[in-house]
Amino acid sequence: MLTYTLRRLLIMIPTLLVISFVTFSIIKLPPGDFLSNQIAELRSQGDKAALEKVEFLRKQYGLDKPFVEQYAAWIGIWPSEQGISGLLQGDWGWSFEHDLPVSAVVGDRMLLSFMLNFTVVLFTWVVAFPIGVYAATHQYSWGDHGLTLLGYVGLATPNFLFALVLMYFANVQFGLAIGGIMDPEYLDKAWSLAKFGSVLTHLWIPVIVIGTSGTAGMIRRLRANLLDELQKQYVVTARAKGMPAFRLLVKYPLRMSLNPFISDIGNMLPSVISGSAVVAVVLSLQTSGPMLLDALRSQDQYLAGSFLMFLAMLTVIGMFISDLLLAALDPRIRLTGGAAK
Amino acid sequence: MADVLQIRDLRVYLEVDAGTVKAVDGVSFRVPEGGTVALVGESGSGKTMVAQAVMSILPRVARIESGEILFHDPKLPGKVTDIAHLHPEGAEVRAIRGGRISIIFQEPMTALSPLHTVGNQISEALMLHRSSLGKAERRAAVHEMLRLVGFADPVKAEYTYPFELSGGLRQRAMIAMSLVCRPALLVADEPTTALDVTIQAQILQLVQSLQSELKMAMLLITHDLGIVANMAEEVVVMYHGKVVESGVVEDIFRDPRHPYLKALMRAVPRFNMAPGERLTPIRELSAATDHLISGRGRPHQEEVNNDPLLVVRNLVRRFETRKTSFLGRKLAGEVRAVDDVSFHVGAGECLGLVGESGCGKTTTAKMLLRSVTPDSGEVVFNDRGTPRDVLALQGDELFAYRRKVQFVFQDPFSSLNPRMTVNEILAEPLLIHGVGDKDERYARVKELMALVGLDVRHLRRYPHSFSGGQRQRIGIARALALGPQLLICDEPVSALDVSVQAQVLNLLLDLKSALNLTYIFISHNLAVVHYLADRIAVMCAGRIVELATHEELFRNPVHPYTKALLAAVPDPDLDRKLDFAALMEGKASDPRAWPAPFRLDASVRAGMLDIGANHFVRAHESADFSELRP
Predict the structure, then answer these.
(1) Which residue of B has its CA nearest to A336?
(2) Mean pLDDT of the region B130-139
(3) What is the pLDDT of residues B197-245, one digit of tens each?
(4) Å between B314 CA and nearest CA of chain A
């Protein structure tokens, strides 16, 4: 088990390296860079001094260097103007657009994003679990059919549309403005209890909007898994032992059907985050999604790159956690370790 | 003696889409205290439904329509519980279920949860039914039970997971689980059907000894008359949900009355069958084997010059087991799945290949088909006088070879594509090999259907609308489509009921003479091989240990493994009961445990020794067998 954990940890290093390379290449794919757009603008205004400053900046950020060198400097294995300072050293780079270090731009938003997405995952599980179990144990009952219908509606509705509908009704029916992730007066203020409270009161709308489709999908999956498990012979064995129905359900089939749930953790984080970007734009949430979109559009390469790397890291770590949990929960994975089928 | 269980006029109905099925239709019988009653019938006869009703674990679609299931607990004299009228999830039933009445299931592979240790699952039964026990007492009881069912190291066994155990050990764990609460009645639902013969005999012995030790009654559900003859005191025969005959075992075997029971008795292959005696299937097939294009009574070249059709020399196949470690995978060891196997098959002969699961018989067959590549060895196929090196065939030659050797699979359910009609299934080999045009192919397909006794009108049906036996016949027809010379049958009847088994065996027998076929017949069932094969090769741990004509092998078995195998088969004959002492305590299949001239280990060379009368035995080359010659 220890060697397994170590091996998994070591594999994460090359994985992240490859991801960083691919990410950076994709960001650099469009012709030009952030500064070349600026230069065009400044030229048209004929601002000589500014033009010189841009040239200075280009040197400063190493944008005149070849691609590979820029990449190496970004991840921190090659000296740039500031010496060796990159992702590996904890330096996320400089945002051209905001003229601030990336960490300063991102900090608060990343936290909000994380809060939002974590709540969404929690919401998904808390809602999906009991409903899924109910639907499976009461297969083809009215409750099951009704929940199934609701689930399909949830699956089929695009998030942003749902957000728009909610916003419209909240505004027209109740006169509420539900956009934003907190009341505007708290924006850019230091964290306080009041600010936290404001976030909480605003959080539930985006959580429901972003969480519905995931919840619906999870319900369907749990129901299907559990139905499969309920047919299995070992359930009959346990019944034949005289086990009470609920205890049996929890100890055997439910435990068995947990596996897909856990292996989902890794997948869920990135899909929730990318799904929330669109919703965040619609609901004008001050999370990382809209900022990532802007950064990609204006080729603010270090900001975009850092965002994407952060996402990749979440995914890789999520996968790692889910693998460890799976091994801990399922002795077949732990003990046969791929040796047997 | 008082009865533990009385079933009176029990009716269990199934609600399915097509209407109501009377799965159990007025069944009455009793199980005396400490006695064994066997419930016999084919699949679908409703015997398992009875067991489930007794346990009140019927599936959702089934309900008890009427009748009584009266349970008299010997520990509570005078108290009678009618299980049929209790709520299946109620506390009263749950107290009996698993505590006073326990069940063993057929499939030890799936009946235990893979996520919980054996110890956990056994002690759970104690926790449910004897909650007064403390943790230490519970563990002690679990250990004692595990030792009782034959685990050498109960403490270690307690912490193993079911998937770490072999089938036989899993079934032992299952038995430990059902018996740990010392029930008054054990329901054994086909407890050994999924196991090898030698393991089956051990489990039967175990159940019998535990039964007398714990003084419990047993309701044994089986389709195997051999097991009935060896285990039961009373027999209840079920057919289509009804009891057709019941009585003490002597009456049932010596004087069967009901036509179904008589037919069932005649349909089972036995060791003491006269040469040339045919099985009588319950429903006789009308197969037309006379007007065949595919048959065409080929005069085989091989018969003229008397060369064998297939010669196999020193075939070896190794499988590597790998170990995952920190730095990747490395070789942990190798298993010789097939180890130096040599034999020949004469034209028109049937060679039986017998052995328990994992002995390498299927791997051998697959190597003959070139679907598994051997590591070394030689296979020579006599193609009408021209010897062909099968392992060297490439491209067109290999393609042509495939026409001549065909395969019949074990599982009639998964070996037919559910999305193809029977017509498409049978025409596919012809299509692949470009035989004839559309009309000719259709004519051949119709002929094949007649050949295996199926109705030509069913050609447009899909496999799911056929029964197991019919599907297996479709599989045989498909194998025959290209007019092969050699047919390799891998356990073709092991998934079939006794009555259907007789049908298919007879069909194979008839086709062999009608089409001048040669068979390699693989089976773990000695009685079936005995019925069909001319010569028999016994395989164990990847090697052929004994090879002889079938009369010789059964009359004069020499190798200890063959002897153990023969001793382990329950014969449906009251005068030839199982000799549990001959089982070698489960060591029969371990080559290192065989006695002196047969023992195989790294130090001595062993080869196939000729002991006369076409009888070969694997033993040390220096061994002297003069005294064994008849």
Answers:
(1) B164
(2) 88
(3) 888 888 888 888 889 888 899 999 988 888 899 899 999 999 888 999 9
(4) 29
The residue type of B78 is G
Task: Give me the mean pLDDT over the B324-333 stretch.
Answer: 56
The range of the structural domain enclosing residue A36 comes to 12-91
Tell whether A164 and A301 lie within a shared domain: yes
Locate the chain B residue with the closest alpha carbon to A138: B60
Structural domain contains residue A337: no
Q: What is the pLDDT of residues B115-124, one digit of tens each?
A: 899 999 999 9
Residues A75 and A116 in one domain: no
- Domain assignment of residue A96, yes or no: no
Record: contact B98-A256, CB cut-off 8 A: no
Do residues A85 and A150 both lie within one domain? no
Interface touch B94/A243, C-beta < 8 Å: yes
Do A228 and A113 belong to one domain?
A: yes
Per the prediction, chain A carries an average pLDDT of: 81
- What tens digit of pLDDT does each residue of A60-74 get? 777 778 888 888 888
Backbone conformation region of residue A323, classed left if phi is above 0, alpha if psi is from -120 to 50, else beta: alpha
Question: Does residue A291 form part of some domain?
Answer: yes
Regarding whether A131 and A221 lie in a shared domain, the answer is: yes
Using the beta-carbon criterion (under 8 Å), do B94 and A244 form an inter-chain contact?
yes
* C-alpha closest to that of A216 among A170, A142, A300, A159: A159
Which of B107, B124, B323 is facing A233, going by the closest CB pair?
B107
CATH code for position A212: 1.10.3720.10
Q: Name the E strands within chain A.
A: 94-95, 100-101
Q: How confident is the model at residue A37 (pLDDT cuts 50, 70, 90)?
A: confident
Q: pTM score, two decimals?
A: 0.78
Q: Over the Cα atoms of chain A, what is R_g?
A: 25
A187 shares its domain with A49? no
Half-sphere exposure of B296 (CA within 13 A, CB side): 10
Co-location of A130 and A60 in the same domain: no
Identify the domain boundary among A65, A91, A117.
Answer: A91
Last residue of a domain, one of A40, A67, A91: A91
Report the residue from B99, B112, B325 with minimal CB separation from A3. Answer: B325
From chain A residues 299-338, the ones with a CB under 8 A of any chain B CB are 329-332, 335-338
- A175-224: pLDDT as tens digits: 666 667 777 777 777 777 788 887 777 788 888 888 888 888 888 888 88
Among candidate residues A131, A52, A239, the one with its CA nearest the CA of residue B60: A239
Residues B115, A256: C-beta atoms closer than 8 Å: yes
**Helices then strands (H, E): number in chain A?**
15, 2
Range of lowest pLDDT (A2-11, B293-302, B447-456): B293-302
Pairing mode, strands B217-222 and B36-40: parallel
The minimal CB distance from B111 to the residues A7, A237, A339 is found for A237
Tell me which residue in B89, B97, B321 faces A240 most closely, judged by beta carbons.
B97
Tell whether A120 and A63 lie within a shared domain.
no
Could you give the 3-state DSSP secondary structure of residue B2?
coil
Residue B94: list chain A partners with CB under 8 A: 242-244
Q: How many structural domains are present in chain A?
A: 2
Cβ separation of B161 and A3 shorter than 8 Å?
no
> What ipTM goes with this model?
0.74
Pick the residue with more confidence: B12 or B326? Answer: B12
Residues B21, B16: Cα–Cα separation, whole Å: 7
pLDDT, position A264: 75
How far apart are alpha carbons B600 and B592 in whole angstroms? 5
